[in-house]
Amino acid sequence: QVQLVESGGGLVQPGGSLRLSCAASGSIFSSYVMGWYRQTPGKQRELVAIIDSSGTTYYGDFVKGRFTISRDNAKNTINLQMNSLKPEDTAVYYCNALSGPARYWGQGTQVIVSS
């Protein structure tokens, strides 16, 4: 079993920045495909960004160059740097890990972008 714990969410004004972190434990972190998803009440959970074990990344189109995903295998951590935040970025952000056939989720961290 893999445990994922997100942190770094909070309230930020439009145009501001936040850095989310996800700490993983319980298995071999370096072999995972890791990602960030987000969900607004009443909406489907959507992909924000993913990063594989070699550091190759993919971003959702809505990011528009504003977000950066990274991983630190030595610390068993992935991060999401979010810049130029918009009100529509408001959501609960979830960390995800894919290891073989298994998929794991964290509990989420709330991001609110508002004046």
Would you write up a description of this structure?
- The protein is mostly beta strands and 115 residues long.
- The protein is 0% helix and 54% strand.
- It has strands spanning 3-7, 10-12, 18-25, 33-39, 46-51, 57-59, 67-72, 77-82, 91-99, 102-105, 109-113.
- The strands form 2 sheets. Strands 2, 4, 5, 6, 9, 10 and 11 form a 7-stranded mixed β-sheet that branches. A 4-stranded antiparallel β-sheet has the order 1-3-8-7, with no helix packed on it.
- Strand 4 and strand 5 (46-51) form a beta hairpin.
- The N and C termini lie far apart (40 Å).
Summarize the entry for a quick read:
The chain is built from no helices and 11 strands. By secondary structure, the protein is mainly β.
Work out the strand percent.
over 45%
Mean pLDDT: 93
- SSE string, helix = H, strand = E? EEEEEEEEEEE
The total count of strands amounts to 11
Instruction: Profile the largest sheet.
Output: 7 strands, mixed
How far apart are the first and last residues' alpha carbons, in Å? 40 Å
Considering DSSP H and I runs of 4 or more, what fraction of the residues is helical?
under 10%
SSE-based structural type: mainly beta
User: C-alpha Rg, in Å?
Assistant: 13 Å
Unreliable spans: none
Number of helices: 0
Shape: globular
